[in-house]
C-alpha cells in the first residue's frame, strides 16, 4: 500500500499562513491551500482504512480551516493547523480518535473529551464503586509507554453527591478522560508516521473496551442496549 504522506510543503504553507493570517493573503493562496487540504484528507482517509482493520469507524470528519471568531478575542480568521476526527460505530462502541497537524505542535488524542451529563455520571459512579480495573488498564506498562498519563479537566473539589475524601477522588473529579501523544515535525514527515498513529490508536483499545462496557451497562452490569 502506498502511504499518503504529510509533506514539508504542507508545513511550509501552514507556517506562511500563521505569518499572514488575513483574508487577502488567504484568497490569493486559496488554490494552494485546497491542494494541501486534499493531500491531508487523503492521509486521513487512508488512516481510516487502517483503523477499520482493528476497529469499526462510523465516520471521519475533517475540520474547516475557518475559525469561529464570534466569541473570541483573537479575531484572526484562519486556523494554523489541519485536523480531523474519527468516530467509533454507534451506541455500542464509544470514544473517538483525533489527529492534529501543525508545525511544532502535532499530536494525536483519544478518549472522551466532552462526555454528556449521563455518561459522565455513569463513569463517576463506576469509579466510586470500584476504580481498580480502570487503574489497571491506564497503568499497564505497554499502554503507558504509548499514551502516558490520563489527562483532562476536572472540578476543584468533588462533584455534587460524591465524597471529597473518596480514595479515588482524583479520577472522580475529572470531566474529561483523554490521552494525548505529541509528535515532532520529523516524526510527522517520516514515511512511517501513518503506521505510528495507527499503532498508537490500536494501543488505546483496552481503555476503549473498558469504557464501552461501562457506558453500555448499568451499575449492576446489565446491558442498556436493546
TrEMBL record:
This is DUF2461 domain-containing protein. Pfam families: DUF2461. InterPro entries: CHP02453 (IPR012808), UCP028451 (IPR015996). PANTHER family: CHROMOSOME 12, WHOLE GENOME SHOTGUN SEQUENCE (PTHR36452), DUF2461 DOMAIN-CONTAINING PROTEIN (PTHR36452:SF1). It comes from the Bacteria.
Amino acid at each position: 500500500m502506498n502511504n499518503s504522506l504529510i509533506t514539508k510543503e504542507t508545513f511550509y504553507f501552514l507556517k506562511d499562513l500563521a505569518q499572514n493570517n488575513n483574508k487577502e493573503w488567504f484568497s490569493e493562496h486559496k488554490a494552494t491551500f485546497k491542494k494541501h487540504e486534499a493531500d491531508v484528507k487523503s492521509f486521513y482517509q487512508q488512516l481510516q482504512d487502517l483503523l477499520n482493520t482493528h476497529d469499526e469507524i462510523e465516520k471521519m470528519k475533517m475540520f474547516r480551516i475557518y475559525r469561529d471568531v464570534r466569541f473570541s478575542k483573537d479575531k484572526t480568521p484562519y486556523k494554523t493547523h489541519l485536523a480531523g476526527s474519527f468516530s467509533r460505530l454507534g451506541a455500542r462502541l464509544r470514544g473517538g480518535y483525533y489527529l492534529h497537524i501543525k508545525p511544532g505542535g502535532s499530536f494525536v488524542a483519544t478518549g472522551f473529551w466532552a462526555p454528556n451529563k449521563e455518561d459522565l455520571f455513569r463513569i463517576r459512579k463506576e469509579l466510586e464503586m470500584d476504580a481498580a480495573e480502570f487503574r489497571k488498564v491506564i497503568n499497564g506498562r505497554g499502554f503507558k509507554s504509548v499514551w502516558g498519563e490520563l489527562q483532562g479537566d476536572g472540578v476543584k473539589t468533588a462533584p455534587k453527591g460524591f465524597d471529597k475524601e473518596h480514595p479515588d477522588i482524583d479520577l472522580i473529579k475529572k470531566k474529561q478522560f483523554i490521552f494525548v501523544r505529541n509528535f515532532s515535525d520529523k516524526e510527522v514527515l517520516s514515511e512511517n508516521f501513518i503506521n505510528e498513529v495507527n499503532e498508537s490508536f490500536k494501543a488505546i483499545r483496552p481503555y476503549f473496551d473498558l469504557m464501552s462496557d461501562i457506558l453500555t451497562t448499568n451499575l449492576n452490569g446489565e446491558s442498556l442496549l436493546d
